[in-house]
Amino acid sequence: MYLQKLQLLNFKNYEEIALDFASKVNVLVGRNGSGKTNLLDAIYYLSFTKSAFATSDLHCVRKGESFLMVKAAFKKNNTVFEVSSAIQSGQKKVFREGGNEYQKLSDHIGRFPVIMIAPDDVDIIKEGSEARRRFFDSAISQLDKEYLNHLIVYNNALKQRNSLLKMFADSGRPDWLAIESYDRLLVQHGEAIYTRRKRFCDEYLPVFRKYFNFLVNEAETSTLAYESGVLTNGFQEQLVRNRQRDLVMQRTNFGVHRDDYIFSLGEGDLKRLGSQGQQKSFVIALKLAQFEILEQHNQFKPILLLDDIFDKLDDQRITKLLELIRSDLGQLFITDARPGRTKDLLDAVGVEATVLFVDAGRISVGH
Amino acid sequence: MEYPSKLIEDAVNQIAKLPGIGKKTALRLVLHLIKDKSENTYALTDALVKLRGNIKFCSSCHNISDHDVCSICLSQRRDRSVICVVEDSKDVMAIENTAQFVGLYHVLGGVISPMNGIGPSELKIDSLVTRISAAQNEVKEIILALSPTMEGDTTAFYINRRIKDFTVKVSVIARGVPVGGDLEYADEITLGRSIAGRTLFQ
Ligand SMILES: Nc1ncnc2c1ncn2[C@@H]1O[C@H](COP(=O)(O)OP(=O)(O)O)[C@@H](O)[C@H]1O
Ligand SMILES: [Mg+2]
Ligand SMILES: [Zn+2]
């Protein structure tokens, strides 16, 4: 699968552009702040129905404007799919494929999969468990629509339950039956989420290890372990047992929303003991494994967005990554603030690339 | 937007507070009103003032009513053994339009959604329980006609549990109703069928 065409109107710092892309390697070169990451984000948006960075849809709208439009032509198995979206202040976001508006945005997720590798990915290791859940949830959602639906209902039920706890903490008169009405949903969907996460990790671990070992050239065993209190303790029982505590804390203390994934190297915990280089390799391996699993599942390659990747890696890892690119990672978008560098690196390994020069929201094609 | 008059601005702001009406539409309506015969505007404001001052809700089913007890609850021709539980008065109107249902109603005033500040006690659920209890076995069936959303389902679950000790059958309308759609939008035939084809609540 690849992105053939992209049109942006008032997306972030782009006023109006229309672009054609190479089906393989596209390099975006331009000074810091010129709009390289914004372009990757537009592609991300068309895949995930939302920005990878902006907290609100309206933040994607060019300053001083009231609406934006994005439009793309994806080519998959020789068929072209036209995807478009519009955001206007005060109106519901519109998302279309082939002219038909989606009833639910979640129906679009996974149809045109994209994976982004960005400098702040190490947050997956360094931040709290939420960052790891977000990564795995996004990875699983792209390959399993049912999982995404379970997640949506679970999160909705959780929010409702927490609001209810607040309400009852304020009034001092808890209605346990009302709480139970949500427990039932948490258990039903939480167990499905647990099972899917576990299955995913079983499938994912060997693929991840393959890439990690490839990148670091060392025999230290890397591990990621899915950790959940859910099945060992009995979800329903724990919800009931924790009720008083939940009421005091005004939130639900038990459930798959507290799950974590523990990363380790050899005997040590990666977050505390891993070197910078090991941590970077770890997150890149996480993403490359996600890529391979998605490819196996879909029988086509996702689009890969590499944001400022050559800034952050040492020569050895760059060499490894170039080796993978040469062996074909499908359609790639690579950003680089340094003119020439990426192109030279690719030339050196015989990979053809189209260079696009980005300058303050304008893009021109170079060679 | 700059308005040529404070009077217009105030009117636009008030009308734009109504659901589904933006400032542009509000301005169009306001300009229409000042062009139209003044009697029409006074008739409109008069109707609104009377509406707010005199509108009542039935003390039994909580449907909109001109009297303390609504005409449906008072009617001798309605089947008192069946109560159809709905979210709003507009659902009552939609179901009445099908002319397929001859029982009584109970208007909850919404569905449980704590995020929006609506817990069970904000709805007419206690009142439903009291009503069934006071009717002393006269009520044989409760039909839950709530929207097919998580909130609707949760409310149905909650009500079912609250009334489980009464000997009433609890059923839910069949989901011929479009997904996520309000009862209001379901066409009369589909809605009529979904009431006829109701199933036992699980
Ligand atoms: N909604 C917006 N409207 C206008 N400009 C924006 C908007 N969002 C971000 N920008 C601008 O985009 C620029 C950053 O672009 P970015 O793609 O991150 O640059 P880089 O080429 O360094 O990756 C900043 O100058 C920022 O002001
Ligand atoms: Mg950038
Ligand atoms: Zn009544």
UniProtKB/TrEMBL annotation, chain A:
<keyword id="KW-0742">SOS response</keyword>
<dbReference type="GO" id="GO:0005737">
    <property type="term" value="C:cytoplasm"/>
</dbReference>
<keyword id="KW-0067">ATP-binding</keyword>
<dbReference type="InterPro" id="IPR042174">
    <property type="entry name" value="RecF_2"/>
</dbReference>
<comment type="function">
    <text>The RecF protein is involved in DNA metabolism; it is required for DNA replication and normal SOS inducibility. RecF binds preferentially to single-stranded, linear DNA. It also seems to bind ATP.</text>
</comment>
<dbReference type="InterPro" id="IPR018078">
    <property type="entry name" value="DNA-binding_RecF_CS"/>
</dbReference>
<dbReference type="GO" id="GO:0005524">
    <property type="term" value="F:ATP binding"/>
</dbReference>
<feature type="binding site">
    <location>
        <begin position="30"/>
        <end position="37"/>
    </location>
    <ligand>
        <name>ATP</name>
    </ligand>
</feature>
<keyword id="KW-0547">Nucleotide-binding</keyword>
<feature type="domain" description="RecF/RecN/SMC N-terminal">
    <location>
        <begin position="2"/>
        <end position="351"/>
    </location>
</feature>
<keyword id="KW-0963">Cytoplasm</keyword>
<dbReference type="GO" id="GO:0006260">
    <property type="term" value="P:DNA replication"/>
</dbReference>
<dbReference type="GO" id="GO:0000731">
    <property type="term" value="P:DNA synthesis involved in DNA repair"/>
</dbReference>
<protein>
    <recommendedName>
        <fullName>DNA replication and repair protein RecF</fullName>
    </recommendedName>
</protein>
<dbReference type="GO" id="GO:0006302">
    <property type="term" value="P:double-strand break repair"/>
</dbReference>
<dbReference type="GO" id="GO:0009432">
    <property type="term" value="P:SOS response"/>
</dbReference>
<keyword id="KW-0238">DNA-binding</keyword>
<dbReference type="GO" id="GO:0003697">
    <property type="term" value="F:single-stranded DNA binding"/>
</dbReference>
<comment type="similarity">
    <text>Belongs to the RecF family.</text>
</comment>
<dbReference type="Pfam" id="PF02463">
    <property type="entry name" value="SMC_N"/>
</dbReference>
<keyword id="KW-0235">DNA replication</keyword>
<dbReference type="InterPro" id="IPR001238">
    <property type="entry name" value="DNA-binding_RecF"/>
</dbReference>
Automatic annotation (TrEMBL), chain B:
<keyword id="KW-0233">DNA recombination</keyword>
<keyword id="KW-0227">DNA damage</keyword>
<dbReference type="InterPro" id="IPR015967">
    <property type="entry name" value="Rcmb_RecR_Znf"/>
</dbReference>
<feature type="zinc finger region" description="C4-type">
    <location>
        <begin position="58"/>
        <end position="73"/>
    </location>
</feature>
<keyword id="KW-0234">DNA repair</keyword>
<feature type="domain" description="Toprim">
    <location>
        <begin position="81"/>
        <end position="178"/>
    </location>
</feature>
<keyword id="KW-0479">Metal-binding</keyword>
<dbReference type="GO" id="GO:0006281">
    <property type="term" value="P:DNA repair"/>
</dbReference>
<dbReference type="Pfam" id="PF21175">
    <property type="entry name" value="RecR_C"/>
</dbReference>
<dbReference type="GO" id="GO:0006310">
    <property type="term" value="P:DNA recombination"/>
</dbReference>
<comment type="similarity">
    <text>Belongs to the RecR family.</text>
</comment>
<keyword id="KW-0863">Zinc-finger</keyword>
<dbReference type="Pfam" id="PF13662">
    <property type="entry name" value="Toprim_4"/>
</dbReference>
<dbReference type="Pfam" id="PF21176">
    <property type="entry name" value="RecR_HhH"/>
</dbReference>
<comment type="function">
    <text>May play a role in DNA repair. It seems to be involved in an RecBC-independent recombinational process of DNA repair. It may act with RecF and RecO.</text>
</comment>
<protein>
    <recommendedName>
        <fullName>Recombination protein RecR</fullName>
    </recommendedName>
</protein>
<dbReference type="InterPro" id="IPR000093">
    <property type="entry name" value="DNA_Rcmb_RecR"/>
</dbReference>
<keyword id="KW-0862">Zinc</keyword>
<dbReference type="InterPro" id="IPR006171">
    <property type="entry name" value="TOPRIM_dom"/>
</dbReference>
<dbReference type="Pfam" id="PF02132">
    <property type="entry name" value="RecR_ZnF"/>
</dbReference>
<dbReference type="GO" id="GO:0008270">
    <property type="term" value="F:zinc ion binding"/>
</dbReference>
<dbReference type="GO" id="GO:0003677">
    <property type="term" value="F:DNA binding"/>
</dbReference>
